[in-house]
Amino acid sequence: MINAFEKHCQxxxxxxxxxxxxxxxxxxxxxxxxxxxxxxxxxxxxLIPDESLHIISQLPLVLKGIYVDGWDINEPLxxxxxxxxxxxxxxxxxxxxxxxxxxxxxxxxKKITVIFNALKEFVSEGELDHVRDDLPKEIAELV
Length: 143
Fold this sequence. Notes:
The chain is mostly helical and 143 residues long. It has a single domain, classed as Globin-like. Helix content is 69%, strand content 0%. α1 (2-22) packs across α2 and α2 packs across α5. The model has no long low-confidence stretch (mean pLDDT 90).
């Protein structure tokens, strides 16, 4: 069992290190995890739970944990219809650094796009098409 756990940890570490590099902060994996969590929180608040479960089913174990950490599946959905509203939701979630991690709108757009691009490693194009269909147009353009 330990070997399986170590495998999951190695996979998550590799993904996070790669994500940190893509975000332009190769020495700050904590930043990468915070940004990932913030996008996951906003995404699960925007998508119907069924769609979130389809995404989760394709993620590796540790990323599944990050996605669902603190999630109340019965929480009302955010009604963000624009990128600005989606970004507002990200900036005002439970991550204490969300406001500063996403302070600049242009950089925030880039970070969100990096997260979605990185998820393509695990989430099928068909599932990402479903996500795009379920998101408002301005947000779907980032996927």
